[in-house]
Amino acid sequence: MKPSSFPSKSTIDVEKANNNQKDIALIVSKNLSSTKAKHSNSVFSPVSINSALTLAASCPGGSSVSDEILSFLRSSSTDELNAVFSKIVSVVFADHSANGGPKISSVNGVWIDKTLPIDSSLKDLFENFFKAVFDRVDFRSKVSFLLLFICFAEQVRRELNKWAEDHTNGLIKDLLPRGSISSLTNCVYGNALYFKGAWQVPFLKSNTRDRVFHLLNGTSVAVPFMSSYENQYLKAYDGFKVLRIPYRQGDDETNHSFSYQQGLFGDATSHSFPFGQGGYSTNGSFSTMYFYLPDKNDELDDLVKTMASTSGFLDYHVPRCKVLVNEFRIPKFKIAYGLDN
């Protein structure tokens, strides 16, 4: 397969293409929240999925693979995907840790079995445009040692796990479980994303205390709530509210108009500010976490469906001004990683 050429930005509407990707992210959110995350908390990264699929669209596999990816991502060409990828790397993944935060880093990797024929320029595309680790590996071979068969794919799996661990400051260990890579594997595409930020207005630890947390199944539990008496970026819409909590920003005041959302879900609500559906957004140098809250406890599914079926929903529902909310509370949470097979 011959790789796609480098994208011509003059002929591609990158902003429109990016808006398509945000809509796709909400569709994935809806599917995830109705299955894996229906009765549990879940986090996923649309931008990582987009990066991996963009890499896959340029890899060996034939036009049918690229066509399926383009159809899913609602893109007209791999050049368009590459243009969005380039913008994400230069704006969304811009690291501001040196001047106040947040710290953001992302790295891509492509591992292709050495028996597959590839175009000679593919290595240049991945290493110089995608800035990805590119390696030809051996998934196929097996060796016999003391009556045991050792598959080279297992060694590759360990190397990939080491790669993910090294590029996430050791937070992600054993990303690929045993058996996830075998002698039947042709290619592996990876995106390691690391984000570390502090709230622009921190919650005081002394104000954190246990309160009632109402679950969607009608029961309740006691969980620690973070509290604040500061005004908040909060706006009420028809049937739901949106909360915006900014992260502490760097000194770069450049205001880019390009934004991208990450996914965050919760299955519960409370009587202060319920933890409905949330997302992390980077708008140039401005990083923010959003919470989307239905007015009624049993309307989270309906809200998610509305978000997924309304093009441009995220951009049309952004709180711009701070308002007085008296005592403000949200459940304390920690984001960890996991892999569903």
Overall number of strands = 17
Radius of gyration: 22 Å
Q: Which runs of at least 5 residues are low in confidence (pLDDT < 50)?
A: 252-278
Share of β-strand residues: 25-35%
- The N- and C-terminal alpha carbons lie at a distance of 29 Å
CATH topology of the largest domain: Antithrombin, Chain I, domain 2
Mean pLDDT, as a whole number?
A: 80
Please give the count of helices. Answer: 8
CATH superfamily (homologous) name of the largest domain: Antithrombin, subunit I, domain 2
* Helicity level: 25-40%
Sketch the major β-sheet: 8 strands, antiparallel
Secondary structure class reads alpha+beta
Q: Summarize this, please?
A:
The protein is an alpha+beta fold.
Describe the protein's architecture and organization.
Belongs to the serpin family. It comes from Brassica campestris. GO terms for molecular function: serine-type endopeptidase inhibitor activity. InterPro entries: Serpin_dom (IPR023796), Serpin_fam (IPR000215), Serpin_sf (IPR036186), Serpin_sf_1 (IPR042178), Serpin_sf_2 (IPR042185). The protein is of the alpha+beta class. It has 2 domains: 14-19 and 41-196, 2-Layer Sandwich (Antithrombin, Chain I, domain 2); 198-250 and 286-340, Roll (Alpha-1-antitrypsin, domain 1), CATH 2.30.39.10. The chain has 8 helices and 17 strands. Strands 1, 9, 10, 11, 12, 14, 15 and 16 form an 8-stranded antiparallel β-sheet that branches. α5 links the parallel β2 (103-113) and β3 (132-137). The longest helix has 20 residues, at 14-33. It is globular.
